[in-house]
Amino acid sequence: MYDPVHRVIAAVHSGWKGTVLMISKSTVNLMRERFGTNPEDLRVVIGPAIGPDSFQVGEEVAERFKDAGFPMSMIWSFQGPGDGSPMSGGHHIDLFQANRWILEECGIRPENIQVHDIDTYLDPSFFSARREGTQCGRNINAIRMI
Fold first, then answer.
1. I need a labelling partner for 48 at 20 to 30 A (CA). Which of 7, 122, 124, 140 fits?
2. What is the 3-state secondary structure (H, E, C) of 83-142?
3. pLDDT exceeds cutoff 90 at 78
4. pLDDT in tens, 88-120
5. What is d(CA 62, CA 67) in angstroms, rounded to the nearest whole number?
6. Band of the pLDDT at 143, cuts 50, 70, 90?
7. What is the DSSP secondary structure assignment for residue 13, as one 8-state letter?
8. 95: closest CA among 126, 139, 64, 123?
9. Does residue 146 carry a pLDDT above 90?
10. If residue 144 lies in a helix (H) or strand (E), which one and from where to where?
11. What is the pLDDT of residues 10-62, one digit of tens each?
12. Peptide bond into 71 cis (omega under 30)
C-alpha cells in the first residue's frame, strides 16, 4: 500500500487467516489514524498469491469467510467431487478478490488496486507449501520508498 500524499507505505501479508480477519482493513485504518491517510489516495498492489483454482479449502474454511461477511458469490466456488488431480473439486476461495473487496469496502478506488494474479502454486519460480510441503523455501516480499 502506498499513500502518495503523506509518503507512507505498508507491506501486508494476507493469507487466508489474515484475510478472514481483514488485516488489510486494519492496515488502512492504522495508516489513517497514524498518518492521516485518506483511503481514496491509496495505491495498492495485490499478489502474487495462491490462485483461486489452486486454493482448495475445506467447508469449515469457506464457512469462516461466509461468517466474516464476505460476498461469497464473488470469492467462493464449489467445483464438485474432483477428478483425483491435486486441487480439483471441492471448495475454492479467491484470495485476490477477497482482498480487493476488503480494500474497496475501505474506500480505496477500484482503479487504484492492481492485482497481479500470479498463482504461486502453479508458478514454479515461487515456493509453495501446498505444492512442495511445509519444509520448502520461503518467498520474500519487500517494499521501498525512494
1. 7
2. CCCCCCCCEEECHHHHHHHHHHHCCCCHHHEEECCCECCCCCCCCCHHHHCCCCCCCCCC
3. yes
4. 999 999 999 999 999 999 999 999 999 998 999
5. 9
6. confident
7. -
8. 64
9. no
10. none
11. 999 999 999 999 999 999 999 999 999 999 999 999 989 999 999 999 999 99
12. no
The three three-digit cell numbers of residue 104, written as one number: 474497496
> Which residue has cell 492521516?
36
Provide the residue type at 54 as one letter. S
Going from N- to C-terminal start, the domains of the chain cover 2-124
Residue type at 68 in one-letter notation: A
Kindly state the cell numbers that stand for 134.
511445509
Class of domain 2-124: alpha beta
Task: Find where cell 500524499 sits.
Answer: 5
